[in-house]
Design goal:
Elements: E1 2-8, H1 27-31, H2 40-51, E2 55-57, H3 79-82, H4 86-113, E3 117-126, E4 129-130, E5 133-134, E6 139-142, H5 148-164, E7 170-172, H6 183-190, E8 196-204, H7 205-210, H8 212-233
Parallel strand pairs: 1-2, 1-3, 3-8, 6-7
Antiparallel strand pairs: 4-5, 6-8
Helix pairs in contact: 2-8, 5-8
């Protein structure tokens, strides 16, 4: 049996009160794509409802600490928090980072102990242009090509999207590599490929910001196509 778990590491740009002095004058940065992933939390909630899955989400800005980076990674802390004291950074990790990671790990472990296979979708969004480079995709599906379950699910999800919404530009392992540092990569090290399938869903922020029927339609088609893809794998 498959158990779905939906996560959203960059769901908001909130800065807890005790750290707001670090971000004085940085509201424009917090409101930018560097502060959070617009639309990612809305998408995660839609997927969780459809799949009857637990949702683990954070609305704390990744500029405080990036929940999708490993401890020791150069991007775990932003330029703002990197200059904070060692004690402050350690406190941020203990209060916001570790509990989030442990919660997700606990959910996966519980499902595996029941004999289920976990299908984990981590919901993200990407800016349409980065450093002068235009990203030519509407949806990205990130996975580890060496894990057959992830490769098969990504292929079927892409195929389902092509059937339901042929106008969408869907690419696999784009605009990032699925094997890069992240929560799914961390969990792959903890669980076998027969127990855990992790996919990062990336949605173009141009669609999110357009809002209206286009964004609503995309949410519905992503939900329907995931359900169709998983049905085909059973």
């Amino acid at each position: 049996m498959d158990t779905f778990i939906i996560t959203c590491e960059h769901g908001g740009n909130r800065i807890p009160a005790r750290y707001r002095s670090l971000f004085r004058g940085q509201q424009a940065l917090l409101d930018s794509h560097r502060g959070y992933d617009p639309g990612a939390l809305v998408m995660a909630r839609a997927l969780a409802r459809s799949c009857g899955a637990p949702l683990v989400a954070s609305t704390v800005s990744r500029l405080l600490v990036d929940l999708n980076r490993s401890v020791g990674h150069q991007q775990l802390f932003s330029a703002v928090t990197r200059d904070a004291s060692d004690q402050t950074r350690a406190q941020i990790v203990e209060i916001y980072y570790r509990p989030y990671r442990l919660h997700v790990e606990r959910l996966v472990t519980q499902a595996v102990m029941r004999g289920d296979r976990v299908i984990h979708v981590s919901s993200h969004s990407f800016t349409a242009e980065l450093d002068g480079s235009v990203r030519d995709a509407d949806v990205g599906l990130l996975y580890d090509p060496s894990r057959p379950g992830e490769k098969a699910l990504s292929a079927r999800w892409k195929q389902s999207l092509a059937t339901l919404a042929p106008e969408l530009r869907v690419r696999r392992n784009y605009p990032y590599a699925g094997k890069g540092d992240g929560l799914t990569t961390h969990l792959r090290r903890q669980f076998t490929q027969s127990d855990y399938v992790g996919i990062e869903l990336e949605v173009n922020q141009d669609i999110v910001r357009a809002a209206g029927r286009c964004w609503t339609a995309l949410r519905h088609v992503l939900v329907d196509s995931l359900n169709a893809a998983c049905e085909g794998l059973r």
